[in-house]
Amino acid sequence: MENTYKKRVRIEVSTSVKGIKTYSCTIEMIDTPAEEVLTESDELVVLLDNRYPAPLMEEKEVKKG
User: Fold this and answer.
1) Concatenated DSSP letters for the chain?
2) What is the pTM of this model?
3) How far apart are alpha carbons 65 and 51 in whole angstroms?
C-alpha cells in the first residue's frame, strides 16, 4: 500500500488526576531529509511547551505545605 501523505503529525494530550497536562507528539515525513524533520519536531515541541507549560517547582512546594 502506498502512502498518500507527505507529513503526518500526531499529538496526544493527557491530563493527570492532579490536573497537570502532558503531551506526546510524533512527526512522520516521507522523502524528507532528517534535519528538516528534526526542525519541524523542535518547532512543534516549542509550541506545545508554550501551550502546556510544566508547573513551577514553587507551586508544587506550596501545595505540599
Assistant:
1) -----SEEEEEEEEE-TTS-EEEEEEEEETT--HHHHHHHHHHHHHHHHHHSPPPPHHHHHHHH-
2) 0.70
3) 28
Amino acid at 47: L
Is residue 2, in this structure, part of any structural domain at all?
A: no
Residue 54 forms part of a structural domain: yes
Q: Which residue carries 503526518 as its cell? A: 8
CA-based end-to-end distance of the chain: 57
Task: Provide the number of structural domains found in the chain.
Answer: 1
Supply the pLDDT for residue 20.
Answer: 87
Which grid cell is 19? 490536573
